[in-house]
Design brief:
The protein is mainly alpha-helical and 197 residues long. Helices cover 49% and strands 11% of the residues. The chain has eight helices and two strands, in the order ααααααββαα. A hairpin with a 6-residue loop joins strand 1 and strand 2. Helix 3 packs across helix 4 and helix 5 packs across helix 7. The longest helix is centred in the middle third of the chain and has 37 residues.
């Protein structure tokens, strides 16, 4: 008597082979993910990725339901969000740092013991960043062929401390425009309705 062996379910019987779920995205799927990140428009992403224009909407819908495709989109979106957040945070921190340098700058950091403006190379980077402009004017004595240079005057102009302090204070919500309303205004319903007529 022949014994029956139990039938093994085939891969086409509704089971997904484990290798398929872990397989990398195809080139077209990667292109779709890349294009989808541009504007989150599935149909247009499918067309730009090289899928048929006639069935692009259906194709996009199918692609977005594939776990590895949707996971790639989510991961890429998260990376973009993090990069944007980091960029904004860096910009805010840098702007506040620059405002602080200007607001709390000290002209004493820019002159030597003799009261003359230090050469730029001898100033700290923080002191240099508070300077708006430097103007050097030569001083002469005598006239004509007897005219000789006897020195120079250096004019140092700093960025506005007042403006920097104001911007910092606004950012820290230390300066707010408050409008105080006073008085007791009471209007009856009849009066209000009468005004509408």
């Amino acid at each position: 008597m022949a014994s029956k062996r139990p039938r093994q379910p085939s891969a086409s019987a509704g089971q997904t082979a484990p290798a398929e779920s872990s397989r990398e995205l195809t080139a077209k799927q990667r292109a779709f993910v890349r294009e989808y990140l541009v504007d989150h428009n599935g149909k247009q992403a499918a067309i730009r990725a090289g899928y048929s224009e006639h069935s692009a909407e259906v194709t996009a819908s199918k692609l977005l339901r594939i776990p590895k495709v949707s996971a790639a989109i989510e991961e890429s979106d998260a990376q973009v969000d993090e990069a944007v957040k980091d960029a904004v945070t860096v910009e805010v921190v840098e702007v506040l740092r620059e405002l602080r340098l200007i607001a709390f700058s000290d002209i004493g950091d820019m002159v030597g013991p003799d009261g003359r403006v230090l050469p730029l190379k001898d100033m700290s980077p923080q002191a240099r960043r508070a300077i708006s402009s430097i103007e050097v004017e030569a001083l002469f004595e005598g006239k004509g062929s007897e005219r000789v240079e006897i020195g120079d005057v250096t004019k140092l102009k700093l960025w506005s401390k007042e403006k920097a302090l104001e911007l910092l204070a606004k950012f820290l919500k230390m300066l707010t425009d408050k409008v105080e309303l006073g008085g007791d205004v009471r209007v009856s319903h009849e009066d209000a309705l009468g005004d509408l007529e």
